[in-house]
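I would like you to sit down with the record closing this message with an eye to the fold:
=====
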Amino acid sequence: MSQTRIKRLSPIFTGLMASLLIYAMDSTIFSTAMKNIVSDLGGKAYYAWPFTSYLLCSTIAIPISGTISDLRGHKPVFLCGIALFLAGSSLCGLSGNMPELILFRALQGTGGGVIVAGVFTIIADLFPPAERGKYTGIVSSMYDLANLIGPVTGGFLSDRFGWRWIFYLNLPIGVFAFIALFFTLPDDRQIIKQKTDLSGMIVLALILFPVLTSLSLAGTVLPWNSPWIVGMAVFAFLMLLIFILLQHRVKSPIFPSEYFTDRRINMALALSFFNQMSLIGAVVYLPYFEQNILKMSATGSGLVLAPMMVSLVLAANIVGRLISRTNQYRIWSLIGFCLIGFSMWRFSVMDKSTGYSVLILNAVLMGWGVGMNMPVGNVNAQNSVSKCRIGSVTSAVTLFRNIGTATGSAFFGTVLTARNVIGWEISGVSRVFQVGIAVALLGILSSSFLRDAKLPES
């Protein structure tokens, strides 16, 4: 890449990374301050709903914003996403009670969904297919930076200045990103006569809302076989059938049928789902093991997660560059899931005598495996479609990652607490990691069927 082009793209790239950072850091920084928030605002019974409302709205916004941006321009939609996120952050900081916070978190989540879908779409706009892997890997490192600095930053701001400052922190970073992208990002707005698939968007929301709500409640607030959970599942399935029928009848569908018939795309969606499930299992239950079995402090368990995140960043960057050089995807995903499965097995056999060095080694292997998969799903899917569908397919990959997070949280939580499941006596965190091996095997299967995308001309 020429020096002139590097100088031209630097402010754009910085703006994209800054916007993704505030999105990625939100969940980690928010969770550390939640205890102080509840003490101040009350509403302990609604403890989970600020998380749930954010996840619901961000996940629903991802595919909808991707489709709209393909029709109306990636830049204006992305800037609207930043503006919504900042507006939501400001209002969250001004919340006077828990219902207000839940509502404003929903607004913030809507903007966050637009941001996370738009970042990788714009990367695909800026760079030719041969370079997308490299820069997708670099930008993805913002997730891991957020995991490293988010909890510390959230705790510090909440204890020193009050919990409202965890939201106000987004404002200077977000305003910088907005201004940088407003003046430097090329305007790709196109005049397209096709109408936005409004009916498809409404039905998609009616699918995702009950699915994500039931995953948030099942196994904790309500049992999996409760009438409410079963009812939401049946309703979501009926809406899915309607959605499929609608998508066949519109000229600009949210999810074209080839997304689910083309193995370059559908397997990219599947491996992204299983990779995210694996990550949430490690991030949540490795500290659980350390604190409850090894009796480590929260700080000590965090120091084990840090090397895992560092290895994840390195793996994502290295594999992203290798993809750009070799145009091979499947091999890296296969190796990544093999490492995940091996790490899950290593986690499952740990006990009270496990040493600190063994913990770190296992965590590093896990991070490396997850990181290897990070660029694969996005880049393989993006290089499998025409430029007019970059936003849509990128949003689809991101959507499946989000659903993987929600599914992993609910499923592993149930595994941890359930008993007598198909004859098993499940009572320990080691069972979570044993089930994690099965998730990794499903990832290996998905990767085996993945078809490498041929490098397009542009």
